[in-house]
Amino acid sequence: MRSALLTGFMCLAAISTQSAWAENGKGFQLTIDGKQTGINVGETVTVTTGDGKEVKVSLERSKFATASGALFSFDHPGDLNPAKTEISRGITQYFLTSATGTSVIVQEYDRSDADAIASRMIKGFTNDDRKAGAKIKETLTERKLESGKTLKGMKAVIGRKSTHLIREAFSTVNGNKGIVILTRFNEDNGPAEERAVIDMFWKSLKINL
User: Fold this and answer.
1) Is the pTM of this model over 0.90?
2) Radius of gyration of the chain from Cα atoms?
3) Which of 88, 97, 109, 202 has the most CB atoms in a 10 Å sphere around its CB?
């Protein structure tokens, strides 16, 4: 997964970065010739190489990055980082969300009851909204991927006092492996860049199943 782009003239120095909360409060640690220097995205720092030369190094975030699991991959804005969680044995979840709540969830199943789990997820994906008293209109829907593969699922338009949410749920299963996809988007408050998160996901999604 690409999460940041390192630019700058580095001579022959070996460079590596890793996300960390450094002692100096910087978001990343840059290691050059065994010496660490703190740096934030968008910042330029001057570092000294092992032979005594001073060079300027900058760290810029990529416009997009790629998230991938065992059975899928998709692109997303570079300033968002999917959280990977092992929910239980044979179930791995990848959760991507923006500051305003636009979100994508992809769950991978590698177990014999993958089909049953996927079916339960689709049937129950609006339960919380229904319990909260929201008005819900559910319809069957489908998404055709760039590869030509078609995913079938459910679309829910959820009306609340101040929000108008669009949620979609899809699943695909092959033997004891499966994928469930859940997306959420607020049509009322979502700016164009929020919709772009969903559009980028569907345009780039690849499933190996």
Assistant:
1) no
2) 21
3) 109
